[in-house]
Design brief:
Blueprint lengths: L5 E2 L2 H23 L4 E7 L3 H16 L3 E7 L5 H13 L5 E4 L9 H7 L11 H8 L8 H13 L7 E5 L6 H10 L3 E5 L6 H6 L3 E4 L17 E4 L3 E2 L5 E2 L4 H4 L5 E2 L6 H21 L1
Parallel strand pairs: 1-11, 2-3, 2-4, 5-6, 5-7, 7-8, 8-11
Antiparallel strand pairs: 9-10
The chain binds NADPH dihydro-nicotinamide-adenine-dinucleotide phosphate (NDP) and 5,10-Methenyltetrahydrofolate.
5,10-Methenyltetrahydrofolate binds next to helix 2, strand 4, helix 6 and helix 10.
EC number: 1.5.1.5, 3.5.4.9
InterPro entries: Aminoacid_DH-like_N_sf (IPR046346), NAD(P)-bd_dom_sf (IPR036291), THF_DH/CycHdrlase (IPR000672), THF_DH/CycHdrlase_cat_dom (IPR020630), THF_DH/CycHdrlase_CS (IPR020867), THF_DH/CycHdrlase_NAD-bd_dom (IPR020631)
GO molecular function: methenyltetrahydrofolate cyclohydrolase activity; methylenetetrahydrofolate dehydrogenase (NADP+) activity
Length: 286
């Protein structure tokens, strides 16, 4: 039986990261009487979004932050949402603003993201933050890409010169994580739905980041023996079971290290949201 892949424990790494954040927030409160504020805006009743917003709210309170969830009805107009954002932008006690995606169809997502103060954009989606990242400069980085890189560094001491293949090119995951891999001196390939012979492309990779949204799409024989696999996918099967974009049972026999779903990138996304809120706090309030 081949050596099984090391399971990268996102739950444990996320808990460690949150513990460090809690210590830092406690010190801020004790020494400066200040508390970082994270505001999450949810429009409508999307069940998955309600779960994520609830866990973001719970974990932000757990680390001692001021955490407010603004739950707006599905028929909220774009103007009403813009007004809410203007209010949060102007409120000095608000350090981080996240608008849970996806938004209802009648609202223009781009216009909403553009309306968030880039200094409070803890999702890192604002064009200014995306532009800073593309230029290799410091800005707020999207949470899932940040969490994926932290897990990657758990498995690989150095990424320099390694071949990385990112499957998916979304603004939330694929594109930003490709930028972070480039900054870590990987040779980066970004694959997508038009890529020809995807298995052959993935086979070249020392590092595979799967961010597609198709359950168990990446098969074991697509993976180079010993490669590190970061599975960002969160797919709910008809029976309610959660599975990633990678066929975990097959991949674990071939990969050198792999993240599980659940228990991998997901918890890191929330921990990095809290980390981004602290980063925004310090950038804004010293
Ligand atoms: N764990 C976490 O915290 C998070 C998990 N996710 C999960 O990650 C996954 C991706 O999310 P997100 O990036 O927002 O997804 P999007 O739906 O925005 O993007 C999907 C990407 O996958 C590509 N794609 C679709 N089908 C194929 C295919 N057959 N072969 C190769 N590429 C394909 C698309 O290509 P094209 O551009 O050509 O259409 C697109 O670039 C989802 O499962 C989502 O739930 C997302 C955010 C956070
Ligand atoms: N503006 C915005 N920013 C986001 O970062 C964002 C978003 N919108 N929309 C939806 C996606 C998805 N997302 C997840 C967060 C946590 C888990 C998570 O904690 N998952 C647990 C399982 C939770 C469960 O059991 O359902 C795990 O993977 O272990 C998953 C997915 C953030 N997203």
């Amino acid at each position: 039986m081949a050596q099984q892949a090391r399971i990268i424990d996102g739950k444990a790494v996320a808990a460690e990261l949150r513990a460090g954040i809690a210590r830092e927030v406690a010190a801020l409160k004790a020494e400066r009487g200040l508390v970082p504020g994270l505001h999450v805006v949810l429009v409508g009743e999307d069940p998955a979004s309600k779960v994520y917003v609830a866990s973001k709210e719970k974990l932000a309170v757990e680390v001692g932050m001021n955490s407010v969830a603004h739950r707006l009805p599905a028929d909220t107009t774009e103007a009403q949402l813009l007004a809410k954002l203007a209010e949060l932008n102007a409120d000095d006690s608000v350090d981080g603003i996240l608008v849970q995606l996806p938004l209802p169809k009648h609202i223009d997502t781009g216009r909403i993201i553009d309306a968030i103060d880039p200094a409070k954009d803890v999702d890192g989606l604002h064009p200014i933050n995306a532009g800073l990242l593309a230029g290799g400069k410091n800005g707020l980085v999207p949470c899932t890409p940040l969490g994926s890189m932290l897990l990657l560094k758990q498995a690989l001491p150095s990424l320099s010169g390694l071949e990385a293949v990112v499957i998916g090119r979304s603004e939330l995951v694929g594109r930003p994580v490709a930028q972070l891999l480039l900054q870590a001196d990987c040779t980066v390939t970004i694959a997508h739905s038009r890529t020809r012979d995807l298995p052959a492309v993935v086979k070249r990779a020392d590092i595979v980041i799967a961010a597609v949204g198709r359950p168990r799409m990446v098969k074991g024989d697509w993976i180079k023996p010993g490669a590190t696999v970061i599975d960002v996918g969160i797919n709910r099967l008809p029976d309610g079971k959660l599975t990633g974009d990678v066929d975990f049972a097959e991949a674990v026999e071939v990969a050198g290290a792999i993240t599980p779903v659940p228990g991998g990138v997901g918890p890191m996304t929330i921990a990095c949201l809290l980390k981004n809120t602290l980063t925004a706090f310090h950038a804004r309030r010293g």
